[in-house]
Amino acid sequence: MKRNRSWRLLAVFSVLALVVAACGDGDEGGDTTAPPGTEATDDTEATDDTEATDDTEAPSEPTGDPIRIGGSLALTGFLSATAVIHEAVGNVFVDRINEQGGLLGRPVEWVLLDDESVPENSAAAYERLITEDEVDLVIGPYGTGNITSAMAVAERYGYVFPHHTASLTYAYNYQCHFSSWSTGLHPNITNPNLVYDAVESSGNTPETIGFVINEFPGTQFIAYGEPGTDEGGAVAQAEERGYEVVLEVDFPTAITDWAPIAESVADADPDFLYIGGLGVNASELINAMNAIDYSPRGMFTQWPAPGPLLQTDGADGIMSVTIFEEHPPFTDDPEAVEVAALINDALADAGVPYTKVETQAAASWTAWEYLQQAAEGAGSLDQQEMCDYLVENGAQTLFHGDIEFYPDEQNYFEDLSKVKQVQDGEWYVVYPEEFAAPDRGVVYPRG
Amino acid sequence: MDLLVQGIVTGVLIGGLYALMSIGLSLSWGALKIINLAHFSFILLSAYLVYQLAISFSVNPLLLTLVVVPLFFVIGALMQVLIHRAKLDEFKSLIVTFGLFIILQSMIQTIWSADFRRIGSEVNVFEGGSIRLGDITLPYPVLLAFIASVAIAVAMSLVLSRTYFGKAVRAVAQDAEMARAFGIDPNRVAVLLSGVATAISALAGVFIAIGQALWPGLAVSWFGIVFPVVILGGLGNTMGALTAGVMVGVAAGVASVVWGPISAPLVTFVILIAALLFRPHGLITARSVA
After folding, report:
1. What is the arithmetic mean of pLDDT over A415-426?
2. A261–B120: do the CB atoms touch at under 8 Å?
3. Is A52 a residue whose pLDDT tops 80?
4. Do A292 and B115 count as a contact with CB atoms less than 8 A apart?
5. Average model confidence (pLDDT) for chain A?
C-alpha cells in the first residue's frame, strides 16, 4: 500500500517533471535529465535545497537500485499509539526525498517491520534487516527499550544508528548513534531545571512540590537520576532549589486505578505537581483528581499524548516539554510550515486525532535528516564514513536548527527543550521567552 | 485516615467495575467451559463503539447501553454457534478465542488507529463528576459501574438459581448429555448464555468508555485484574465475581495508599495465590454453576 502510494507519487511527479522540462529552457531540461550520481551529490553539497527550489530547477528523477533503509516500529502493542506518528513521518520523508531526486540519486525504499512493542523483537528485526534483507541503512525504532535493543545490533554490525526518542541517554555510548531528541546527555538535570525556571519566571515560586512518577525507566531516570549514581534528577533538583518535597509516588506502567494516587496528591496538596508520566497518565490522573474535586495549583507532565490531554477537563495550565509547536516563532520558516502540513495530512490519513507536529514528529523527521545528510555528506553509503561525517559536521535540521554532536557527550548535543503549556485549550510554548508564542507566557498558579 | 477511608471506598467502587468486566468470562468459563479470551476484546470493542457513537451523534454514552448490549448479545450468541460447530473443547477454545482476541485488536487499531481516544466532556457528562458524602467522594464512572455490577450480579444469581433457564444452565454445566436426556437443548442454552455473557462484557465496555481513555493495547492490561477476579470468585459464580472484584479493588486501593501504587498488582496476585492454595474452587462456591 505504502509502496503503491510512493510509486503513484513518483509517477505523478515524473509527469510533472516532464511537463516542467518541456516548458522550461534547455539548461534546466539538461539538468533534469542528467544522470544522478556522486557528482549530483557534490552539487547537493554545494547548494542547499531551498536554492534549488528557488531556481525552479526540477530535481532529477532517482534512478538505479533503491537504497533500502531498514527499521522497525511498534505498529502493534502498547507503544503503537505513538509509533504511528513515526510511521507517518517516515512515509512523508521517504516520499519527499524521492520526489526531490532520491538519496545519492537513487530512489529510497523504507523496509519497515513491526516489532510489536517488544524490545527483543526489535533486536531480531534489525538482525534480520541487516543480515538477511541486507538493507543499506537503518533508522531507529520507537520506544526506549526497543531503541536500546536495536542499537546493540546496529553497533555489532557497525551501522550508523539515528534514533528519535530514547530516554536513557546515559546508556547509549555507541560512537555511531545519533539521537534526534534534543534532551542533552543529562536531561535528568536540564529538563527539570528548565521547568522550574519556567515556573519561577511567573514570579511565583512554589514552596512545596509533589512527584507522581511512572516506573517506566525513562521517567524514573528523569525523576531520580541514573541508577547507581548520586547525580539525582527532578526530585533532587527541586530540593536543591529549596522546594519541600511533600509527595513521592511511583506507579506501575500498566496502572488501572488512579483514584488512590489522586487521593494521595490531594492529601499532600503540593504547590506544584510533577507528573513523570507517559501517554494518557496525566489525563487519567487529572480525571481522578476532578472526581474528588481536587485541582493542583500547578502541574507538569513529562511526555504526554498531547491530544487527549487537551480534551481533558481541568488540564488547562498543565505544562510539558517540547521540541516544536506549530506557532511562531517555530513556523517562521516556510519549509517547516510546508513539512508540518505534509505531516498533518499524513497523520490525518493514518486516523490520528491530534495531527499537529510536536516532539515525536519533529524528532522523527530529524532522525531521517541525519541519515540523509550522513549519506550525502559522505557521498557514499559507507557506514564509518557516514558516522564520521555526522560527528565532524553535525547536521542542519528543520526543527532543531544546526546541530553539533559532541563525542565526549556520547554524541548528544544541548538540551533544546522548551516548556509548553495548555492555555485556552491549545498547547503554546511559553518558555524560554524567545520561543514563546506571541502574547503567551507562563501562567502559574493556574487560573 | 480520610485518605485510607477514601481509598477503601474507591476500591469498593472500582471493584464493581472489575466484577462487571469479569462476570461474562466467569459465566462462559464456568458453564460453557469456554475460556473466552476474546471477552477482553469485546469489552474494548464495545467501549470503542460507545466512544464513536457518542462523539458522532453527541449522545450521552450511558444511553448507548441500549445499542451495544443487544448488539453484543447477538455477537456472543453467534460466536457460540461457531464454537459449537467447531466442537472446541476448553483448551482449543483458549487458542481460538486468543486468535479472535488478536484479530479484534487489530481491527480496532485499523479502524480507530493506535492513538488514544477519549469521549470529550462536552458529551461525556460523567467525566470527572462525583457525589460527595461528607469528606468522601464517589466518582460517577465507577459509582455507576458499581451499581450496574451489583444489579447484574444479583440478577444473574437469581436467574441462575430460580429460573428454568438457570437450572438448565447448571444442568448443562454439570452434564450436558444428561441434561439433554431431561429435555434441555444444551446448544440453545449455550447460545443464550454466551449472548448474555457477551452482553455483560459490552456493558462493562460502556463504563470503560465513560471513565477513561481508550487505546488498542488497553485490553491486555485487564488480564491481570480479570483473571484473578474470575478465579477468586469461582467459575460461573456471579456473586463470587462481585465479591472478588470488590476484594481486589479494596486490597489494591489500600495497598496503593499505604505502600504506593506499585504494590497493588503484587497484593492482587498474593491474594490470588493464597486463594489457589487454600480455596482452589474460589472464595464462594455455593452458587457456582460450574
Report:
1. 96
2. no
3. no
4. no
5. 87
Residue for cell digits 503503537?
Answer: A80
pLDDT at B289: 63
Task: Name which of A267, A305, A314 is nearest B3 (Cβ-Cβ).
Answer: A267
DSSP B214: B
Same domain, A73 and A159: yes
**pTM of the full predicted structure?**
0.80
Residue B118: what pLDDT?
87
The pLDDT tens digits for B73-112 are 999 999 999 998 988 888 888 999 999 999 999 899 889 8
- Give domain status of residue A348, yes or no: no
Nearest to A84 among B111, B113, B132 (CB): B113
| Nearest alpha carbon to residue A376 among A62, A13, A30 | A62
Which chain A residues are closer than 8 Å to B127 by Cβ? 287, 290, 313
| In a domain? residue A29 | yes
pLDDT tier for residue B1 given thresholds of 50, 70 and 90: low
Say which amino acid occupies A365: W
Q: Are strands A418-423 and B136-139 parallel, antiparallel or unpaired?
A: unpaired
Cα–Cα dist B22/B35, whole Å: 12
B2, B14, B7: which is closest to B259 by C-alpha? B7
User: What is the arithmetic mean of pLDDT over B6-35?
Assistant: 93
Task: Give the number of domains in chain A.
Answer: 2
Whole-number Cα distances in Å, A110 to A90, A106, B108:
8, 13, 25
Q: Interface pTM (ipTM) of the complex?
A: 0.75
- Residue matched to cell numbers 545490533: A153
Same domain, A148 and A259: no
3-state class of A39 per DSSP? Answer: helix
Note the pLDDT tens digit of each residue in A184-212: 999 999 999 999 999 999 999 999 999 99
Domain that holds residue B256: 2-278
CA nearest neighbour of B47 among B188, B207, B161: B207
Mutate one of B115, B125, B225, B269 to test the A interface: name it (highest A CB count within 10 A).
Answer: B115
In this structure, the answer to whether residues A239 and A136 fall within a common structural domain is: no
Task: Indicate which CATH number applies to the domain containing B236.
Answer: 1.10.3470
User: Are A30 and A168 members of one domain?
Assistant: yes
User: Nearest to residue A103, comparing CAs of A118, A112, A93?
Assistant: A93
Q: How many residues does chain A have?
A: 447
| Residue A117 zone, left/alpha/beta (φ > 0; ψ -120 to 50; rest) | left
> Cell triple for residue A434?
524567545
Q: CB pairs below 8 Å between A and B: how many?
A: 150
Same domain, A173 and A191: no
Domain membership of residue A331 (yes or no) is: no
Cα A271 to its chain centre, rounded Å, is 31
SS (H, E, C) A238-292: HHHCCCEEEEEEEECCCCCCCHHHHHHHHHHCCCEEEEEEEECHHHHHHHHHHHC
A80, A263, A288: residue with CB nearest B7: A263
For A66, which DSSP code? P
Total count of domains within chain B = 1
The string of DSSP letters for A322-344 reads ES--SSTTGGGSHHHHHHHHHHH
The residue of chain B nearest to residue A278, with distances taken between CA atoms, is B116
Nearest-by-Cβ selection for B115 from A81, A287, A288? A81
Using the beta-carbon criterion (under 8 Å), do A351 and B115 form an inter-chain contact? yes
Contact partners, residue A54, CB within 8 Å, separation at least 6:
none
Chain B nearest-CA distance from A201, in A, is 31
Q: Which domain holds residue A171?
A: 2-184+358-409
pLDDT of residue A347: 94
Cβ atoms of residues B27 and B238 within 8 Å = yes
As a whole number of angstroms, the distance between CA B208 and CA B197 comes to: 17
pLDDT, greater one: A437 or A293: A437
- Residue A32: CATH number of its domain: 3.40.50.2300
- Is B80:B194 a contact under the CB 8 Å cutoff? yes
Strands A208-214 and A244-251: parallel
